[in-house]
Each structure stands twice: as structure tokens, then as C-alpha cells.
């Protein structure tokens, strides 16, 4: 991945997720791909509000896990503040757009993950129980 990141926050801001779904793939430090923030295995719908652009290595490491709390905070903030743009992107690409549903599904998934002590993806190959 080139330059190492000193913190999860640096990594989050620089290359993990483009929460805006505008594919800035060239800005990633390697191949990027569209991913479901809430894994498809937990919510099999292509809501545009649940799609992010992820660095391929990060996406592969995250796999079907939930992302850590810091990632969730960034995603939630973006979904709320860019709802209109995400709806336009969804409409122009034939994708469902439903901010409320995406946020409620995320809430439910994180409550359940916390209840069972599930691990979440933090960065690279780092995982930890959801706090």
C-alpha cells in the first residue's frame, strides 16, 4: 500500500472509504472497488447510501465484517450531510436510495454485533471486539 498510516484516522481519511460514492479511485493507493458499508451478508440490498469506494486490500480485509466505530461515524456523517447527492446518484444509476433505511439497518447491525461481542474491522488486518 505504499506509505504506512500512523493511525486508523489517517488511514480512514486517506484511502479506506470514499463515503461519497464518487469514485475517486485514482486517489487510492492501489486498486479500488465499490463495497457495501453494511456487508451484503447482513443486508442484501444495493442502497446507494450503503455503498462506498474502498481500497481493494482494505475491502478484502474487512470482508463480511462491520467496520469499526470510527469508520461508522464517518459514514453516518456523510450519509446524513450528502443525502440529496446520494439520492441523485442512485436515481441516475438505477439504485435504491433510502437514507433512513440505511441508518436503521446500520443501527440494528451494530446493536446485534455488540450484543454478541462480534469483532469489527479496524484497519489492515486489525480487528477488535465492538466496544
Summarize the helices and strands and which ones pair or pack:
Blueprint: H1 8-16, E1 17-18, E2 32-36, E3 51-55, H2 56-62, H3 69-81, H4 83-92, H5 99-116, E4 119-123, E5 126-129
Give a quick precis of the structure.
With 131 residues, the chain is of the alpha+beta class. The chain contains five helices and five strands; from the N terminus they run αβββααααββ.
Please characterize this protein's 3D structure.
The chain is of the alpha+beta class and 131 residues long. It has one domain. The strands form two sheets. A three-stranded antiparallel sheet has the order 1-3-2. The longest helix is centred in the C-terminal third of the chain and has 18 residues.
Strand-residue fraction? 15-25%
Strand ordering within the main sheet: 1-3-2
Work out the helix count.
5
How many β-strand stretches? 5
Keywords:
three-stranded antiparallel beta sheet, 131 residues, 5 helices, globular, two-stranded antiparallel ribbon
